[in-house]
Design brief:
heterodimer, A: about 110 residues, six-stranded mixed sheet, four-stranded antiparallel sheet, about 0% helix, globular, B: mainly beta, about 55% strand
């Protein structure tokens, strides 16, 4: 079956530090990949997505590249802000299937 | 504004008292689903619906029911709630995307406590 593995948190950083959150996946087919973000007390919001190998999704300074050869979709940001503190979820959706498979989430804490 | 709405946002109830959490979307999406979120377990799918009158079990369906009589609504029903159903619940509706797969839009969540 499909699965998504994320690095465990919390990840604690100082403002303006570089962020990487690792995500690897296992899929039987050729999935689309997503990063969702959950701010405290809110629902999940789509942050970025990529639908084929070597695609780079980007939004709000965050980036992730679909690496088929390493089955990875790591999230990066060059300079984090306190407002980026949230839980980040990596997820996949297979072609022809509507179910989304999530990782367990990684909490990011950014201090001033 | 395109959105998924859930009600109530917070609910405290007692064991065995039937309850319904409503979910509605205004994006004309065919696919809708329910998740529960628990610490250390991430999001787990409870039920999903591919279209009106078409529903199927997700990963953790025990103790839950759903119905899809209209495209926009997908209520979650707990016939006899138990304390292990204390959780944060999210409804989502989905759009198929170019390149394959589905992009999901989430409601704000319902925090349920069963005593």
């Amino acid at each position: 079956g499909n699965s998504v593995t994320q690095m465990e948190g919390p990840v604690t950083l100082s403002e303006e530090a570089f962020l990487t959150i690792n995500c690897t996946y296992t899929a039987t087919g050729y999935p689309s990949l997503f990063w969702y973000v959950q701010y405290p007390g809110e629902g999940l919001q789509l942050l970025l997505k990529a639908t084929k190998a070597d695609d780079k999704g980007s939004n709000k300074g965050f980036e992730a590249t679909y690496r088929k050869e390493t089955t990875s979709f790591h999230l990066e940001k060059g300079s984090v802000q306190v407002s980026d503190s949230a839980v980040y979820f990596c997820a996949l959706s297979e072609r022809g299937y509507s179910t989304l498979t999530f990782g367990k989430g990684t909490m990011l804490l950014v201090s001033p | 504004e395109a959105q998924v709405t859930q009600n109530p946002r917070y609910l405290i109830t007692v064991t065995g008292k039937k309850l319904t959490v409503t979910c509605s979307q205004n994006m004309n999406h065919e696919y809708m689903s329910w998740y529960r979120q628990d610490p250390g377990l991430g999001l787990r799918q409870i039920y999903y619906s591919m279209n009106v009158e078409v529903t199927d079990k997700g990963d953790v369906p025990e103790g839950y029911k759903v119905s899809r009589k209209e495209k926009r609504n997908f209520p979650l029903i707990l016939e006899s709630p138990s304390p292990n159903q204390t959780s944060l619940y999210f409804c989502a509706s989905s759009l198929s995307i170019q390149g394959g797969g589905y992009e999901q839009y989430f409601g704000p969540g319902t925090r349920l406590t069963v005593t």
